[in-house]
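User: Fold this; tokens only.

Assistant: Input:
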Amino acid sequence: MKKLTILVIILSLFNASALATDKPIATMNVKIQTGNFKLQDLINASSLIANATPSKIVDKAIAGEVITLKGKKYEVRFFSFEDTTNKLPKTQTFKEYAQSNKITELASVITTPVPGIIFESFDFRRAKLNDAVYFSMAVRLIEDQK
């Protein structure tokens, strides 16, 4: 199930849903827009994400965590934080990394790969740090509490 979730996230982020049809990519409309919260909001909502340290292995305890962001419930569907060159201190937390690199104000991106499934995500590409640190995370809206 987690492998399927990761695949859905990857496909939605790269507009790869076009591969499942015979329509040209240029005519596909995967809805992508600026999200509803900042990276700092996610860090504040999840101590597991805030306190994660660099690892080559995805921490399975984080996926599945239910958090509340701006009055809405989300499930953490994916989180990875990896220092590919081993330059970061092994004990540096993701929160410390985000703060020291001034990316806490990075806005989430909303993707809707299929109707009724709403993901908000962050990744290293949009941070544009070029430090060989890989991070990627996605949460899925599960309940609007308005």
